[in-house]
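User: Hey, quick favor. My workstation is busy. Could you predict this chain's structure for me?
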Amino acid sequence: MANLEKRARIASVDIMRGLTLLLMLFVNDLNMKVAPAWLGHMKADFDGMGLADWVFPGFLFIVGMAIPFAISGRIKKGEPVSGILLHIAIRTFSLLVIGVLMLNSGRVNPETTGIDRNLWALLMYISVFLVWNDYPAGKHKLPFRVLRAAGAATLIFLAVIFRSGTAENPGWMITGWWGILGLIGWGYLAASLVYVAFRDSVAWTSVAVIFFLVINILDKSGVFGGLDPLRPVLGIIIQGNVPLIVVTGMLAGILIRRVKESGHIRIILMFIVLGMVCLSMGFILREWFIISKIMATPSWGMICSGISFLVFAAIYWFADVKGLTRWAGFVRPAGKHSLTTYLAPDILYHAIWMSAIPVLFYKQSSEPLVVIIGSIAWALLMAGLTAILARYSIKLKL
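Assistant: No problem, here it is.
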């Protein structure tokens, strides 16, 4: 989620982040009852993966890549470790809160909550933008503080009135699997703490990758059954899979920082080798664990990391070696303002569903090509929306 320092910015990071977000918007929008199965998620017990099963770990990989640049920038500015840890804690908490709110937006019972489900979600997303928007710097800060306070008050109100379940057996919010942003939050926390502890050490970061891989293997082998009481809170860390992918991406970022003076070719060859190693390990682990995103198996995690290494190597060659970046101009704003890109479409979704205007008519088609083209157009429009919003200083920053 963090951006690279401007003076050390690597174009391929924003481009790959933007492309993965574009793919995320595309696969999330698809009507998988009509679209080809290989574009979506495979079932939990299916040994294999579709396009959608790589998109999220691809983004996690890029989240990890950006961490060394972001935290090292704070260190260079002389920020104390206590301040950096506080920043990490606040960012993690923010991601967890938004993730849980998003996860529960689909569980609203209109009768017991007293508000339409789409309206609850719409108010929630608008409030998230009010609270976490990156407002312009300047003397006139009072209006922005009022907006932020209004957003916070609305979120508290929505949380208080929230009810799920039935009138006879009502429920409240659950953390569940923490939602997409919550998963990012836990992965970011684990990787950031590793970086604060070991900085740009390739050796110790590699040890951290192996550590989380072993944790993932042991968890899927049933070794950690005794830790079940901790899973409602620390389940993502105990599982090991999300931290594994983010820390692997962080290793990639550290390698770029450490060997960039040695030339581009060395970086690309290194990433190709690491990509092949991860893929090989993934298929070796397949002997014991099926490739499954839903089950978060180590084989799936390693294969996705391998793909990410290879995809980044290709983008790095085009963007940072050859300087060919114009082709990706439409996705770079989406990559630079990734959280805005991910959340803004949900505001439109709920507004469209409330209005009952058939804007998403292509979803009703029985023709796969129409469904695919419609979702591609939606994803591209959302990337363009991010660029427009950024011009008017509407951009989320945690």
